[in-house]
Design a protein that fits this description.
alpha/beta; eight-stranded parallel β-barrel; 310 residues; TIM Barrel; 12 helices; three-stranded mixed sheet
Length: 310
């Protein structure tokens, strides 16, 4: 099966009330861990790369690794998505390179500018058979090139969301209901605005909804990192139960990046601490890859509900 767009994936997920995991990829081990998990769970998957990941891995290497993943998992629907495309040029480059889905993030602009930029990307993407995710509302936190202070974050307005989708023709919409980027999502108690989500689904029932900044920041992984020398105190994410609720309440795509970083780092730190004489990269990248697989399997099975949906 070649790379697919998210269109059919999302139609099925909206009908059957589950979410599809969109996992950020940066290197071979992360891709392998994700694909190993999806094969075992028989789950559709979205592999996504930010512009930072593309700069790091280089687009040609990335495409060849994705090609290998598709060959290795012929029965799994796999979409390749640009996460947080900052401008039209980046989206165009990814569409031309073979991505099947792109996100244009115009959330930092005012409403009219966001509409105009999104529409420009939609027109080009649709002419090339590619689907487009857009964003309305601002998520706090830091991830790659995205950096929004907590006081500048804002919830998505449901009425604006309807107008935005109608005017831009975007295929899915990332909304802000309380999640945030990075490992420090909440200072107090975690809270998501399910009332806003319900209103948005009521107004645009056929538009797939996306949650960014939705890593759980798995406590065991944070503890393992800190046990072996990391310094990430107070890291806190979105609890699994809330994400599970979101996946049953109309969210079609849930993004995961921080949890994969923690999984990889925890195992690498463990090997370095317990076996200081080790300098063969395979000796620490293999357990890192296994931890990625374990983390992705947990998300698919226990949180998103996408197991056996192929």
């Amino acid at each position: 099966m070649p790379l697919v767009t998210t269109k059919e994936m999302f139609e099925k997920s909206m009908k059957e009330h589950y979410a599809i995991g969109a996992f950020n990829v940066n290197n071979m081990e992360i891709i392998q861990g994700i694909i190993d998990a999806t094969k075992e769970e028989k789950s559709p998957v979205i592999l996504q790369a930010s512009s930072g990941a593309i700069k790091y891995a280089r687009v040609n290497y990335l495409m060849k690794m994705i090609e290998a993943a598709v060959e290795e998992a012929p029965d799994i629907p796999i979409a390749l998505h640009l996460d947080h495309g900052p401008d039209f040029e980046t989206c165009k480059m990814c569409i031309d390179a073979g991505f099947t889905s792109v996100m244009i993030d115009g959330s930092k602009y005012d409403f009219e500018e966001n509409v105009a930029l999104t529409k420009q990307v939609v027109d080009y993407a649709h002419a090339h058979g590619v689907v487009v995710e857009a964003e309305l509302g601002k998520l706090a936190g830091i991830e790659d090139d995205v950096n929004v202070a907590a006081e500048d974050a804002m919830y998505t307005d449901p009425v604006q969301a309807k107008e935005f989708v109608e005017r831009t023709g975007c295929d899915s919409l990332a909304i802000a209901i309380g999640t945030s980027h990075g490992a420090y999502k909440f200072k107090g108690e975690a809270k998501l605005r399910f009332d806003i989500l319900a209103k948005i689904k009521e107004l645009i029932p056929n538009t797939p909804i996306v949650l960014h900044g939705a890593s759980t920041v798995i406590p065991e992984l944070v503890q393992m990192c800190n046990k072996y020398g990391a310094d990430i105190p107070g890291a806190k994410g979105v609890p699994d139960e809330m994400l599970h609720e979101a996946s049953k309440s109309g969210v079609s795509k849930i993004n995961v990046d921080t949890d994969l970083r923690l999984a990889m780092t925890a195992q690498i730190r463990k090997v370095f601490a317990e076996e200081p004489s080790t300098f063969d990269p395979r000796k620490y990248l293999q357990p890192a890859r296994e931890e990625i697989k374990k983390t992705v399997q947990h998300k698919i099975k226990e949180v998103f509900g996408s197991s056996n949906r192929v």
